[in-house]
Amino acid sequence: MVKVFQALSSGSSILKKAGSSSPRLDAELILGFVLNWDRIKIMTEGESELSGAEYESFLRYIEDRAKGMPIAYITGHKEFMGLDFYIEPGVLIPRADTEVIAETVIRECKSIDGQVSIADVGCGSGAIGISIAHYVKYAFVTMMDISDSAVEISNKNADLNHVKERVKIIKGNLMEPVAKEEFDFVVSNPPYIRTDVIQSLQRDVRDFEPHIALDGGRDGLKYYRQITMSASTCIKAGGMLVYEIGFDQGKAVADIMLRAGFSNINVLKDLAGMDRCIIGKKIC
After folding, report:
1. b/e string for 179-201 if b means 16 or more Cβ within 10 A?
2. Rounded to 5°, angle at Cα 121 from 213 and 103
3. Predicted pLDDT of residue 200
4. In this structure, are residues 130 and 141 in contact, taking their beta carbons and an 8 Å threshold?
């Protein structure tokens, strides 16, 4: 029988040879998933034995990771804003950097008395909109995505995080499904990577995450232009448009927002000190 510490050693070795930047951590997370143990138990129960089936399952997932499959797609889960989100191939994996977008809207909601209406455009897994609904109990969030997978997974995550009664999830292209509605906030993490950069991305992103959620067109700004134009007619006076942006896109996106009539535009940084979020207000 193989013991936990032996499995971790063999798994780490395979991942190290495959070029993983965190082979031990990856092995611990995968073994924890197989055994349904947390990392503390994995690290303190090294002498415990795995069944043959458990070890085979572990090695199979290790091989998937060695080929570049992201951990979140292997385990089916990713933490975001302290919440658990179900994840599978077909939606972008939520990143910690994106939390600044949700945190910004949550903070701004505190200045509004009464119900807050929010549109989450291109919702993917639902991480942003569902997090806002979870932490702002008077927020009602309409989420939309053109992907069937995104709509299905967002519905699962709304149930998982107990906000289904304040979240509406619609299939549709950008803001077309809500063209005649008005919101206090429009928030989006749109595809913003330039088309010619996609093939140079890290393997686990390039080969496994959906390109539809990554590719922002020739200059990376395609969806900012389209969403901003729609948002300019769908945001209430005094409402806000909030985007995630690439580290070098602040000025370009600010110019798009200014031309559409937004003002008080600010670029916010993520924990690494990189430009990550842009926010603008609709005055009238």
Report:
1. eeeebbbbbbbbbbbbbeeeeee
2. 95
3. 96
4. yes
> What are the two backbone dihedrals, phi and then psi, of residue 249, each rounded to the nearest 5 degrees?
-110, 0
Length of the chain: 284
HSE value, Cβ hemisphere, 13 Å, CA-based, for 117: 11
Dump pLDDT digits (tens) for 176-187: 999 999 999 999
Average pLDDT, the chain: 96
How many CB atoms within 10 Å of residue 106?
17
pLDDT band at 265 (very low <50, low <70, confident <90, very high): very high
| Alpha-carbon span 272 to 53, nearest angstrom | 41
How many Å apart are CA 144 and CA 175, to the nearest integer? 8
Kindly report the backbone phi and psi dihedral angles of residue 137, in degrees, each rounded to the nearest multiple of 5, phi listed first. Answer: -70, -15
Determine the Cα–Cα distance for residues 127 and 258; give it in Å rounded to an integer. Answer: 28
The three-class DSSP label of residue 199 is: helix
- What is 2-67's CATH topology? Helicase, Ruva Protein; domain 3 (1.10.8)
Dihedral sign, CA of 177, 180, 185, 190?
positive
Nearest alpha carbon to residue 98 among 280, 270, 274 = 270
Read off the tokens for 17.
């040879």
* Cα–Cα dist 242/220, whole Å: 17
* Domain limits, the chain: 2-67, 91-282
CA angle 269, 271, 273 (to 5 degrees): 50
Report the CATH number of the 91-282 domain.
Answer: 3.40.50.150
pTM for this predicted structure: 0.94
**Residue owning tokens 């549709």:** 172
Paired strand residues for 188: 121, 243
pLDDT for 110 beyond 90: no
